[in-house]
């Protein structure tokens, strides 16, 4: 963000927040829809262009408010069509956003935090430590940057981004309010109008927040499981010690029962050589998941320096998939995309001014771009 003023940044305001803001400055709340449309459907960067608002209102808004976009520090376009942006957020840290086109879909992988506090043993974001939560403007700003990379926003053009997954840097449920606000803009008809089926929040399993999420929204849910039992998951996802598998599974079921449709939980399972990729573990996983409506997404581990892990062999992944599929679990293997630009899962590292000092235990893995 390039804001230096004390003005209110309206970029991350959901429709409800925009209404409240307008009322707080003595204006009619029905203007909220007009302003949301200008900002998100027309790509407005200031109030002058908002010609269906009176001159007086535009002048008043310019005095107290602004539309402040994230600053793109570098962009990288992969040979396979993947695009990655590094975005500078207030305080100087960088976060990363990745767009992955596939046929007539294009999925944007959005970051929610600068770094991550969960410290999953196989994730390079975690090794960077944690700095802070992103604001709603910084979260929705990533979608805006991706859409604008195709040229000026044109509401009549086909969608450039069809799906959003909150699977970038950070644990989205640890940044609850900002992420919920940003997702509501993603799904808002007057903003980006994405279907609730095409907005997915991925979590390592923060049980109370999964329940709260179900009360407020109906996005699709993905769970980063990675292990078929508690002892192994304790090792890979330390949050499991606080919220063990049975509790997380129960929360997922509660979430699904609120949705009241045919959606299922996406189970993410990063395949790590000799750690969680054995046939017995596949069978154990099948037993674990048999009473949870879900589909399984196997993610070949993406290596990073000093991780201490290796990617599972293709044969092991295929055999694992055969076991789970044969038992009736719809299983896909995530194709590794964008790894020539370090944009694959777990390779998003940004540049985190680590407040936890955790990163000092590791050799830095930040990739500096030439343009910096
Ligand atoms: N904190 C959230 C979202 C961020 S990570 C969560 O845990 O779900 C998005 C997905 O990539 C998660 O499933 C994560 O476990 C996985 N991932 C992390 N590091 C990885 C790596 N090095 N290789 C492959 N997948 C990885």
Entry summary:
This protein has 372 residues and is of the alpha/beta class.
Structural description of this entry:
- The protein has 372 residues and is α/β, with parallel strands linked by helices.
- The protein folds into 2 domains: 59 residues, DNA polymerase, domain 1; 291 residues, Aldolase class I (TIM Barrel).
- The protein is 31% helix and 19% strand.
- The strands form 3 sheets. It has a 10-stranded mixed sheet with strand order 3-4-5-6-9-10-11-12-13-14.
- The radius of gyration is 21 Å and the shape is globular.
- The protein starts with 7 loop residues before the first strand and ends in a 39-residue tail after the last strand.
- The C terminus is likely disordered.
- The structure holds S-adenosyl-L-homocysteine.
Protein topology:
Layout (H helix, E strand, L loop, with lengths): L7 E2 L5 H10 L6 H11 L13 H10 E2 L4 E7 L5 E6 L5 E9 L2 E5 L3 E3 L8 H4 L2 E4 L2 H13 L14 E4 L9 H12 L11 E5 L3 H10 L3 E5 L5 H7 L8 H15 L5 E7 L7 H11 L4 E7 L13 H13 L4 E3 L39
Parallel strand pairs: 1-2, 6-9, 9-10, 10-11, 11-12, 12-13, 13-14
Antiparallel strand pairs: 3-4, 4-5, 5-6, 7-8
The structure holds S-adenosyl-L-homocysteine.
């Amino acid at each position: 963000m390039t804001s230096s003023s004390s003005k209110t940044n309206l970029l991350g305001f959901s429709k409800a927040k925009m209404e409240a803001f307008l009322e707080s400055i003595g204006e009619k709340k029905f203007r909220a829809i007009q302003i949301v449309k200008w900002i998100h459907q027309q790509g407005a960067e200031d109030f002058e262009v908002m010609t269906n608002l009176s001159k007086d209102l535009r002048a008043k808004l310019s005095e107290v408010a602004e539309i402040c976009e994230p600053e793109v520090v570098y962009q990288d376009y992969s040979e396979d069509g993947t695009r990655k942006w590094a975005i500078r957020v207030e305080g100087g840290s960088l976060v990363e956003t990745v767009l992955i086109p596939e046929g007539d879909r294009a999925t944007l992988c959005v970051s929610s935090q600068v770094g991550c506090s969960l410290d999953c043993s196989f994730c390079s974001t975690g090794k960077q430590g944690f700095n802070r939560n992103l604001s709603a403007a910084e979260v929705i700003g990533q979608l805006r940057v991706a859409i604008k990379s195709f040229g000026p926003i044109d509401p009549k053009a086909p969608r450039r981004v069809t799906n959003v997954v909150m699977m970038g840097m950070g644990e989205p449920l640890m940044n609850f309010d900002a992420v919920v606000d940003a997702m509501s803009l993603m799904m808002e008809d007057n903003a980006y109008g994405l279907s609730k089926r095409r907005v997915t929040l991925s979590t390592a399993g923060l049980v109370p927040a999964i329940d709260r999420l179900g009360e407020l929204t109906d996005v699709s849910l993905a769970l980063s499981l990675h292990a078929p039992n508690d002892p192994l998951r304790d090792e890979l996802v330390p949050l499991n010690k606080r919220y063990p598998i049975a509790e997380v599974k129960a929360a997922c079921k509660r979430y699904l029962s609120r949705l009241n449709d045919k959606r299922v939980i996406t189970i993410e399972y990063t395949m790590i050589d000799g750690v969680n990729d054995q046939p017995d573990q596949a069978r154990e996983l099948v037993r674990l998941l048999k009473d949870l409506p879900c589909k399984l997404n196997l993610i070949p581990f993406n290596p990073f320096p000093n991780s201490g892990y290796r990617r599972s062999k293709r044969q092991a992944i295929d055999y694992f998939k055969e076991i789970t599929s044969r038992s009736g679990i719809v299983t896909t293997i995530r194709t590794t995309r964008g790894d020539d630009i370090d944009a694959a899962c777990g390779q998003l590292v940004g540049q985190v001014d680590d407040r936890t000092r955790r990163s000092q235990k590791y050799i830095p893995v930040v990739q500096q771009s030439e343009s910096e």
